[in-house]
Write a structure and sequence with these properties.
single chain, 47% helix, 28% strand, flat, binds zinc ion
């Protein structure tokens, strides 16, 4: 007889799913080279048999997490592109203007 590790519901033979789940927590004090060190806490994960329902839940959570990271990356990328575009436009507008723009000023110094 097997039970789900997370919700402990009964699993008929062949129904269980093997998945990495959080099984515990470990905390202690690390001692780097000299110094007092500092406390750390890590979650321990291990392969356990769980029911398909719990496996679905974990998968959904992972997917949400991945989506969040993708959103962050896309936002950073777009703001970088916007910044470069702004810089490009700034140069395009002020590069031939003798009174404004740091590019023009730098050119005048080298003469
Ligand atoms: Zn379960």
């Amino acid at each position: 007889m097997a039970n789900c590790f997370l919700c402990s519901s009964y699993l008929p033979k062949g129904e269980g799913v093997r998945a990495k789940v959080v099984t515990g927590e470990k905390s202690g004090r690390s001692y780097p080279f000299l110094g007092l060190g500092r406390f750390y806490t890590t979650t321990l994960k291990a392969l356990r048999t769980i029911c398909p329902k719990c496996a679905e839940k974990i998968e959904a959570k992972n997917k949400k997490n991945r989506q969040w990271w993708i959103n962050v990356c896309v936002t950073i990328l777009f703001s970088l592109i916007a910044f470069l575009l702004l810089l490009f436009l700034w140069n395009l507008i002020f590069v031939d203007n003798k009174n404004a723009g740091f590019v023009t000023k730098a050119k005048n110094v080298s003469k």
